[in-house]
Amino acid sequence: MFQFTMKQLRYVEAAGRLGSIANAAGELNISQSSVTAAIDGFEERVGYTIFSRMPAKGIVATPTGREVLTLVRGFLDQAQHFASDLASIAGTSTGVLRMACYVTVAPYVIPGMLRSFTRNNPGIRIDLREGDMVSINELLQNGEVDLACTFDGMLSERTPFLPLFEARPFAVLAADHPLALKQAVTLAELCEMPMVLLDLPASREYFLDLFQSQGLKPKISHSTRSAESVRGLVAGGFGFSILNVCTPDEVRGRSGFVCRPLVDDARAPQLGVAHLDGIRMPKVVSSFLDQCRIFRDEGGFHHLTLNRPASN
């Protein structure tokens, strides 16, 4: 039977995550020899190599090692949640909530979601990671985060998903553009202008499909992986764009651009929070989801959306 200490597992996990014994030692504030001894002892007990040593390049997990590291991270995470759950029995909320969020919506939705949760759970630390929809889905599926705030289009049907709001697509226009005077615009009108495309995995396909579903093809003049750059380029008069989340100030044009709803019947994704199925949900995760439901039901996200104009 294999016997390991929590300390040994933490050393092995850090080395694998950072790809370097020296970096792991620095993060853990221990000697490199301690990390090396932990790895050597671990490999001796399991009976196979989990890291390949690369002179002057650090260490790289072997194919078997990658599977082992996934198990080690899962075990350490469950141990941390176990300690948190034990503390909560005594009325003390502690632990870490690991969450990933789609990078373009994080500044809009995360502060509101976390405000009341952290007020009611002051001992919980939030470990927030941002990325495109593909990468944060991978983080969730690999067990590197507990929750993923994302759109529903990238998730499998088996992934539990708490919908928060429908994020209807809208046009982003320079505040001084003639179309900005209209209450709503059509995709056909936008196609007469150059487009500034948010070029992130899955997002690019979604935005282009909005036009293709109407038999249209936009004229892409600029593309960027940053939503902030999209807004800046639009405000500078380089074209229009399509996004899914905005603020009232952005609708009013106080940032040099305006947001206008689309007349077209465009596909609207649901923004929400996903978690893994088939595992015991730690109390910190279930508490956060409960708080998200309350915040949603109280209208906490209403100001971030633009509704499709009513038909005459």
Short account of what is shown:
The protein has 312 residues and is an alpha/beta fold.
Structural class label: alpha/beta
Q: Kindly state the percentage of residues in helix.
A: 40-55%
Quaternary structure type: single chain
* Uncertain regions spanning at least 5 consecutive residues: none
**CATH class descriptor of the largest domain:** Alpha Beta
Mean pLDDT: 86
Order of helices and strands: HHHEEHEHEHEEEHEHEHEHEEH
CATH topology heading of the largest domain: D-Maltodextrin-Binding Protein, domain 2
Which band does the percent of strand residues land in?
15-25%
- CATH homologous superfamily title of the largest domain: Periplasmic binding protein-like II
CATH architecture of the largest domain: 3-Layer(aba) Sandwich
Tell me the Rg in angstroms: 23 Å
Biggest beta-sheet profile: 5 strands, mixed
What does this structure look like?
This protein has 312 residues and is α/β, with parallel strands linked by helices. The protein folds into three domains: 6-65, Arc Repressor Mutant, subunit A (Orthogonal Bundle); 93-166 and 270-304, Periplasmic binding protein-like II (D-Maltodextrin-Binding Protein, domain 2); 170-261, 3-Layer(aba) Sandwich (D-Maltodextrin-Binding Protein, domain 2). The chain is 42% helix and 21% strand. It has eleven helices and twelve strands. The chain has helices at residues 6-18, 21-28, 32-46, 63-89, 106-120, 133-141, 187-190, 203-212, 227-235, 248-252, 283-297; strands at 51-54, 58-61, 95-102, 124-131, 147-151, 161-166, 170-174, 194-198, 219-224, 241-243, 257-261, 270-275. Strands 4-3-5-12-6 form a five-stranded mixed beta sheet. A three-stranded antiparallel beta sheet has the order 10-7-11. Helix 5 links the parallel strand 3 and strand 4 (124-131). Helix 1 packs across helix 2, helix 1 packs across helix 4 and helix 2 crosses helix 3. The chain is elongated and about 70 Å long. The relative contact order is 0.14.
